[in-house]
Amino acid sequence: MNKQLRSLAVVLMALFVLLFAQLNVLQVANADKYATDPRNTVELARDQARARGVIVTADGVVVAQSNPVDDRFAYQRQYPEGDLFAGAVGSFSPFFGATGVEQQYNNVLVGETSQQRLRGLGALFSNKQRTGDVHITLRADLQKVAKEALGEREGSVVALDVRTGAILALWSYPAYDPNAVSGHDVAVAESARKALLADERKPLLANAYQESYMPGSTFKIMTSTAALEHGVPTDRVWDTETSYTPPNTTKPINNYGGERCGGDFFTVFKLSCNTPFARLGVELGAQTMVDTTKGFGFGEKLPVDLPGAVSSFFGTMSDFNRDEPRLAQSSFGQNAVTVVPLHLAMIAASVANKGKMMIPYVMDKTIDSDGTVLQTAKPTVWKTPMTEATAATLTQAMVGVVQGGTARCCMQLANGVQAAAKTGTAQLRAPGDPRGPLSHAWITAFAPADNPRVAVAVMVKASPEVTTGVGGTVAGPVAHNLLDAAMFAVPA
């Protein structure tokens, strides 16, 4: 009998230990995960009738604040800059929950992090609500330049500090005014939200990090990396030709506009010839191309501190099994390849940062309502997709694109600052298609080329304008304006 009781006691003790461990996992280890889950209605109910801290840009502009109101919610969330920061900051609604920074850093804003709770123990008998402020890395001056330069064309604009990964600008059009969905009149707010959801252009989606698109020739940065890392010499000369037919197909791959194109690495890169890069992909093989893109983070959700980030796509070995035509097309950014605009900026930044790709982030620091700094950003390397030597060669090639290639039209920066760039025109429908040509226009760039500070990526979605232009002429002026402004705003 005693033996049975001892056995039962041991089992009960073990169950108690397991229960204690699980409670710690739920309440401590996964607390932030559950707090930011949009399905967590308990958090939403808790936060409806309380103050929230402010969200402030790196150049001191308040972009979200709570004001007292005389209704059941007590505080109204307001966004003084309207749609300018909606894609990153998001919105907070008592009916629909939170998005963006409002969601990611909700517990800080309402004073419910473990640090803030502990600090609040000394003020148990105070009527003052504890909140927290979030200072973000985005700059209002650069965000305005991005918005004005893109205009009313669907697309995205991103700017990063190449040295840290701090996001300086993050704009997508169309956007939306978060004030419209954050009001306390449920009928008005719901009507506004339904209209936004019904819009086929998806204004509620932050395309800069929540969508991916065919990248066109900007992808040649990855194929070039694969070639350089595997010993393909830069002085190798590619035949001048108008087309190349990969193995196992009779359908040729053409250079843009049917142009004759060839030469050494720096020449075919700056002129953005398709045939050499299609040939390179087949020559290097699927395994090398897949491994190279994995090294850049393809197939992984971008590790940005914003909810809903997606991944870029190249493919796996099974996708290219005995399919050289697909590999050839993918190697210059066509077929099923897609890239997230934020990711493309990170790729250019890795070239600028001597081969190191930093984790992108929007939170610079969080501050408690008593002025205590709770958390500060810690720049961290995410990937090292290339050696420093390869990064230097790619920088030289990208400078060539600006000096005498596809970006020479529009990337001559003010005060003689030298930019490095790569353009892309992703043909969704080629010339000759009975439905008409259709293309996305891209550019990614960084400056100054000799001591880089800022990288940008611009994507203009397919439209009638893009069918008659290319990445350099359509997206290039946007990147030019943003880099010019960034050279003034971001210190060396």
List keywords for this structure.
alpha+beta, about 20% strand, five-stranded antiparallel sheet, six-stranded mixed sheet, 19 strands, about 35% helix, Beta-lactamase, 20 helices, about 500 residues
Note down, in words, how this protein is organized.
The chain is α+β, with helices and mostly antiparallel strands and 492 residues long. The protein has a domain at 216-362 and 380-489: 3-Layer(aba) Sandwich (Beta-lactamase), CATH 3.40.710.10. It has helices at residues 2-29, 31-35, 41-47, 86-89, 100-104, 106-109, 114-119, 140-150, 186-198, 207-210, 220-229, 265-271, 275-284, 286-295, 324-330, 341-352, 388-404, 464-467, 471-474, 476-489; strands at 55-56, 62-68, 75-78, 92-93, 97-98, 132-136, 155-161, 167-173, 238-241, 243-244, 253-254, 261-263, 357-358, 363-368, 373-376, 381-383, 420-429, 438-447, 454-460. α11 (220-229) packs across α17 (388-404) and α12 (265-271) packs across α17. The termini are far apart. The model has no long low-confidence stretch (mean pLDDT 90).
CATH topology of the domain at 216-362 and 380-489: Beta-lactamase
Apparent shape: globular
- Which class of the domain at 216-362 and 380-489 in CATH terms? Alpha Beta
**N→C terminal distance:** 78 Å
**Total number of β-strand segments?**
19
Proportion of beta-strand residues: 15-25%
Based on CA atoms alone, the radius of gyration comes out at 25 Å
> SS-based structural class?
alpha+beta
| DSSP summary: helix tally | 20
The CATH superfamily of the domain at 216-362 and 380-489 bears the name DD-peptidase/beta-lactamase superfamily
Main β-sheet description = 6 strands, mixed
- Percent range of helical residues: 25-40%
Q: Supply the CATH architecture of the domain at 216-362 and 380-489.
A: 3-Layer(aba) Sandwich
User: How much is the average pLDDT?
Assistant: 90
- Weakly predicted, low-confidence segments: none
Q: How do the strands line up in the largest sheet?
A: 3-2-1-6-14-15
